[in-house]
Write a structure and sequence with these properties.
Number of strands: 10
Structural class: alpha/beta
Strand order of the largest sheet: 3-4-6-5
Distance between the termini: 102 Å
Order of helices and strands: HEHEHEHEHEEEHEHEE
Helix content: 40-55%
Strand content: 25-35%
Largest sheet: 4 strands, mixed
Radius of gyration: 36 Å
Low-confidence stretches: 27-32, 51-61
Shape: globular
Amino acid sequence: MGARRTRSIFVMRASVVWTGCRLLSSLSAPNTVRLSQLVIARPFLLANSGFHSSTVRCYSDKAPEQPTAQPEADVTAAKKSNFFDGLSKNYQVVKVSTTSPVSKLGASIARMVGEKHKVVVSAVGASSCNQAAKGLAVARKFLSSQGDYGFQAKLSPHDQVRQNMLLFVVEKPAVTQEADQVKSNVVVLEKAPTHKIGAAIAMKIRANESVTVSCVSLGASTVFRAIQAITVAREFLKRDNLEVSAFPEFVSVESKLGPRTTLKFHLLASTVQPTNTTKA
């Protein structure tokens, strides 16, 4: 029993010595070895003055960790922040919340426009867009002596849920052809499909009709759907080199609870120069 154990220890030590000698002979130049092999060869490397610790590199059996990718939400938020930083260089950005007072909002917009600033109103969601549209209607009244002001509705880039609306304040041209156009009214209900309404608006504008969008149902969601439909119509009319502007006003409608105030949008289409022109 003792002789067998002694023989096993001798064989194991001989194997270790043999592995270390082979490793030592292969290290004539800087090489990459495994950590387990380096531990075995350590006594031989220390005894050989020709090797320095800097000439031996060891690596783990595990694959190197890949850099953690930045979450998509953080990337989108960063792009959105950069977009608004660039927008604020050319525009006075007015951010509207669900609790923004309409009268103060309208007065602020009118003051900025009166000071010859370019103004864009940013609102997220139905309630904020409702407050923004009402504020623009108030500003339109305040600015009536200087001109007629409305907005061009666009979706904010990097907005995956299509909730962030940008309302760029614009002035109505002095000369229009509205008097010669057929009057057409588009009705928006609370659960109306915005893409179908937007397509109907675009079709009427292509037919050279003067279009108004009326919010028949009361509530913020109806106003929000009306603005979304105007945005969809604007996208449809890009191929026709037409830009759509909306001019909001307060109107009174009858409801089960008696007369109530809601919004109506007068739409105006203007021709714009195509962005991509080809030379003949």
